């Protein structure tokens, strides 16, 4: 079955195969660059996330795409929808801020240096009856360092592809295989 | 794999057909965007927008994708093999 | 465009650019709608009782119970790209230790324009407790009603509907009858 492909490879020549590989690498590298660049602009480790749970329904459903920012100068406010990741938990959670408590820095030195207040937060999913205390894995409050970003923009359904790929891993491998083959065998 | 691909009917169309398909899909899609946006905005209903856009996309793919006879009216006329048979000696 | 596969490929590439343009246009069109409706908020009563919460089951602490009245017409916030409104009532105060507190005590999701004429006489949905466990010596708090418009496509907007004119003081804690 693969004799045809090997023949095609021979015909294209070594240089051509290298060129295709280089093209492939460029595509991957530019994707990574855009992602990391966005991360720097928004100050968020992952500026675009896919909603994985239904706890914010009817606002966000599984598969919706969220755009995040995490401005350094801004404190979070109640009503903001945040994405946070508790150390030890595998997936980030998208929930709304229910309470904030800005504790002023302790000691006169820190106060004079103008250190920002450290913020304690409590979150809750719109679709949940109780707050997120149980999700915090023993922490009493959510802090700034746990937060990935604040939801600014919203695009429905687009992220469902990634959920489908997670639920059906075969799909992922099939897609990767087909894309790779096409990239290598394309004759322009 | 290419054997496998070749066994599936490919629905080929000729060059004039390709140009026609290209023009049709550009015009239809861009007008669909403009019209569905304006209609949705005027009626203040986003479902109108996506309904119109989806319907026009479905219609477009029905017109453009299958190899209808109208895309195959200009078959390429190859020259006879006879005249090219002689090779010039250099 | 030669075979059906390349036609599918080309048309779907064009389709995705067009869809992107359409979504961007919808998101940008939201800029036209900048209604900022106002309403009335009145705090009817505040009581402070000792109580327990799930969070601190064993500590003795005060819980505040707030009764409030809200009237607001939020129909102007519903335009073609509004998926839902999230309304929330929050208390803001700075306690004796200088901690600035914002606590949401009530919220509501409004999904239809027909339900956007709000007229609520309610009490707090969520536990309202102080970080120091007591409302003794806590300065009066301001209450404000805010909204968050969530779109079908695009960015989220926030605003304030009403705010108490004067801060409302917390009463002394009284034993529950």
TrEMBL record, chain B:
It comes from the Eukaryota. It is found in: Endoplasmic reticulum membrane. The chain crosses the membrane at residues 24-43, 50-68. It holds the Pfam family SPC12. It is a multi-pass membrane protein. Belongs to the SPCS1 family. This is Signal peptidase complex subunit 1. The lineage of its organism: Eukaryota, Fungi, Dikarya, Basidiomycota, Agaricomycotina.
TrEMBL record, chain C:
GO terms for cellular component: signal peptidase complex. The keyword Transmembrane applies. PROSITE patterns: PROKAR_LIPOPROTEIN. Its main location: endoplasmic reticulum. Keywords: Endoplasmic reticulum, Membrane, Signal-anchor, Transmembrane, Transmembrane helix. It is a single-pass type II membrane protein. InterPro entries: SPC3 (IPR007653). It is found in: Endoplasmic reticulum membrane. One of its GO terms (biological process) is signal peptide processing. Belongs to the SPCS3 family. Essential component of the signal peptidase complex (SPC) which catalyzes the cleavage of N-terminal signal sequences from nascent proteins as they are translocated into the lumen of the endoplasmic reticulum. Essential for the SPC catalytic activity, possibly by stabilizing and positioning the active center of the complex close to the lumenal surface. Essential for viability. This is Signal peptidase subunit 3.
